[in-house]
């Protein structure tokens, strides 16, 4: 995409005006989105974006600019403008590029640049809609989507790195609305991965529609949730969004280096119940948050964040390593060429334990089973959170009694980690999009079912 001689000229120029480090991130991005509203197919959306981001570092100060042009003169002009206030005599010299390309650990077959596969995507969404509508006359509307993209990147830097990578993303799902008189409720289901439309072989449109409508109908008949402090069992899969938001972000050097994370000085200390083990990795085959290399050109890896309750590692990008002294973990990520990279999560989850869901529920006198979690709000520095339960049940005397609505879980990341007492064997992963200083990136959240002994539940009963 970018001639290596052009890249060398630009990086040489960036160093000639005094940068300690210079990097070019080149990206070509294909997108295609197919969506439906009940029985209707909405207009197909597709596009191609190309651009180059230039990062320059002066004594830890990051300067960043981008352009859609690939000629040396334009890129050198941007470098000169970025360095206008920090310009100085050269302090380092560039190394010759050493081209490296890692193994593609996440193979893809039906990709955008070969086949849009529009007809089969529409057929999938229509079959899911039919299944959702067949569940009940109370299902008033469905909305389906199948979003696919293909991202080609090249990374050059002043340390001699020249790396290339191609990422193929696919995500498909459906939401359903159930209505009974003036009352409405919703449910949804989706799946995705770092692969092409061949994912259709492993996702069932009938299940997609049935699950969306099942959640909607369950919530339609739900009772008001009681409030107060009580034990809660959080279901597997997307339940891991709480760990991601309330704890994972606190382990990124983006927060640690600024000492805005409560964990910044707790490396090696017990921060969770000893039953808790948590990882962040990019290696799981074709998982939504997996990568071959990060957006700084470093191969991905498996990072053990928490081991037997003890803080074992942070998530470290290049700048974070310089600021904290911790080794890089291949966690430098960005949404596109318009963003400088930062330490970000990949596939982040609490590992499987030895308990089972039935025993967890049986151990509750009065509490809640949060089968599915939704979005919420988090305070970046403290990990204080407020998350909505999208499918929940009231539990009494060790048995599920009835579904509840409008439940929220309120606590902090550090507090909830210490209240986890049981972890199931049923580890499951789920797709999500994570927003931070370097934009929105695909991340996987996950966990087995787990029991939190004491947490504040918000409800309106």
Radius of gyration: 24 Å
The largest sheet is: 8 strands, mixed
Question: Helical segment tally?
Answer: 9
Report the count of strand segments.
Answer: 24
Residue share in helix: 10-25%
The end-to-end span amounts to 59 Å
Provide the residue-averaged pLDDT.
96
Q: Tell me, what's the shape?
A: globular
Instruction: State the low-pLDDT regions, or none.
Output: none
Hey, roughly how much beta strand do the residues contain?
35-45%
Which structural class is indicated by helix and strand composition? alpha+beta
InterPro entries: Metalloprtase-TldD/E_C, Metalloprtase-TldD/E_cen_dom, Metalloprtase-TldD/E_N, Peptidase_U62_metallo, TldD/PmbA_N, TldD/PmbA_sf
Organism: uncultured Thiotrichaceae bacterium
Family: Belongs to the peptidase U62 family.
Domain Metalloprotease TldD/E central: 117-220
Q: Would you kindly provide a written description of the structure presented here, covering whatever features stand out?
A:
With 461 residues, the protein is α+β, with helices and mostly antiparallel strands. Among the domains are: 4-32 and 44-100, 2-Layer Sandwich (PmbA/TldD fold); 224-458, no CATH class. 19% of the residues lie in helices and 41% in strands. It has helices at residues 4-16, 72-82, 118-135, 205-220, 241-246, 253-256, 318-324, 357-362, 413-419; strands at residues 21-37, 40-41, 45-58, 61-67, 98-100, 139-157, 161-180, 183-193, 223-224, 228-234, 278-281, 302-307, 310-311, 332-333, 342-343, 347-350, 366-378, 384-396, 399-405, 408-412, 420-423, 428-436, 439-447, 450-458. Strands 1, 2, 3, 4, 5, 6, 7 and 8 form an 8-stranded mixed beta sheet that branches. The chain has a 6-stranded mixed beta sheet with strand order 13-12-11-16-23-22. Strand 22 and strand 23 form a beta hairpin. Helix 1 (4-16) packs parallel to helix 2 (72-82) and helix 3 (118-135) runs parallel beside helix 4 (205-220).
């Amino acid at each position: 995409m970018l001639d290596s001689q052009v890249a060398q000229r630009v990086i040489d120029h960036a160093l000639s005006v005094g940068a300690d480090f210079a990097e070019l991130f080149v990206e070509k991005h294909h997108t295609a989105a197919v969506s439906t509203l009940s029985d209707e197919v909405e207009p197909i959306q597709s596009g191609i974006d190309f651009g180059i981001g230039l990062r320059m570092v002066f004594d830890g100060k990051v300067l960043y600019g981008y352009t859609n042009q690939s000629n040396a003169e334009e890129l050198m002009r941007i470098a000169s403008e970025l360095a206008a206030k920090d310009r100085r005599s050269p302090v380092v010299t560039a190394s010759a590029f050493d081209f490296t390309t890692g193994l593609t650990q996440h193979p893809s077959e039906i990709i955008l640049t070969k086949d849009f596969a529009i007809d089969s995507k529409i057929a999938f969404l229509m079959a899911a809609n039919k299944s959702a509508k067949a569940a009940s006359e109370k299902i008033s509307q469905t909305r389906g989507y199948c979003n696919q993209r293909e991202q080609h990147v090249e990374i050059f830097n002043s340390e001699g790195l020249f790396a290339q990578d191609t990422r193929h993303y696919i995500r498909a799902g459906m939401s359903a609305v159930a209505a009974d008189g003036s009352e409405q409720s919703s449910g949804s289901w989706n799946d995705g991965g770092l692969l092409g439309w061949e994912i259709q072989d492993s996702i069932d449109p009938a299940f997609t529609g049935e699950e969306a409508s099942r959640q909607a109908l369950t919530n339609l008949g739900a009772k008001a949730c009681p409030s107060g402090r009580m034990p809660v069992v959080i279901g597997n899969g997307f339940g891991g969004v709480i760990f991601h938001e309330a704890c994972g972000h606190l382990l990124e050097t983006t927060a640690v280096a600024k000492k805005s994370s409560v964990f910044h000085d707790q490396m090696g200390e017990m921060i969770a119940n000893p039953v808790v083990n948590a990882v962040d990795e990019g290696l799981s085959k074709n998982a939504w948050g997996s990568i071959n290399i990060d957006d700084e050109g470093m191969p991905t890896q498996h990072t053990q964040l928490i081991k037997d309750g003890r803080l074992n590692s942070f998530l470290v990008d290049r700048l974070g390593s310089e600021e904290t002294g911790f080794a890089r973990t291949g966690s430098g990520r960005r949404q596109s060429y318009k963003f400088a990279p930062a330490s970000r999560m990949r596939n982040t989850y609490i590992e499987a334990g030895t308990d089972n869901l039935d025993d967890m529920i049986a151990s509750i006198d009065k509490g809640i089973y949060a089968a599915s979690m939704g979005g919420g709000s988090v305070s970046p520095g403290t990990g204080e959170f407020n998350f909505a339960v999208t499918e929940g049940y009231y539990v009494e005397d060790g048995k599920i009694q009835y579904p509840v609505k409008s439940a929220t879980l309120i606590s902090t990341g550090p507090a909830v980690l210490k209240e986890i007492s049981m972890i199931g064997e049923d580890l499951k992963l789920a797709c999500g999009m994570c927003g931070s200083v370097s934009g929105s990136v695909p991340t996987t959240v996950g966990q087995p079912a787990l029991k939190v002994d004491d947490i504040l539940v918000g409800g309106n009963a």
